[in-house]
Amino acid sequence: MPSTPATRIETFANPAVDRDYTIHMQIPEFTCLCPMTGQPDFATLELDYVPDQRCVELKSLKLYIWSFRDRGAFHEAVTNEIARHLYDTLQARFLRLTARFNVRGGIGTTVVAEHRQPQWQPAPPITLP
Known about the structure:
Layout lengths: L10 E3 L9 E11 L6 E11 L3 E3 L1 H9 L8 H16 L3 E11 L2 E10 L13
Antiparallel strand pairs: 1-4, 2-3, 3-5, 5-6
């Protein structure tokens, strides 16, 4: 069992490539370091994506997220870096990463980064009675 962080994200074949469906993940223990003070920053990451050919393997995602623990990074930069790496790896039809950073100095920060395949359009919403 790995006991160190990793920067590689593993994937597996989408078992339902013929349809759109959404995968939602909550990652409540994200940490990185403030690049100005070296103090830890804590966040809950929410990952939503519509897979195309590949899905993310959870253990590798956990080890990947762990790799940020000792890195200095601004909230905006780290959110966009993770979203871009996930999108480049998965080539998801749609991907949204929401990073909700804990309050520090009286200010809470939420950063949302999205990517989508150019040709992909979501199905219209269905309203049920």
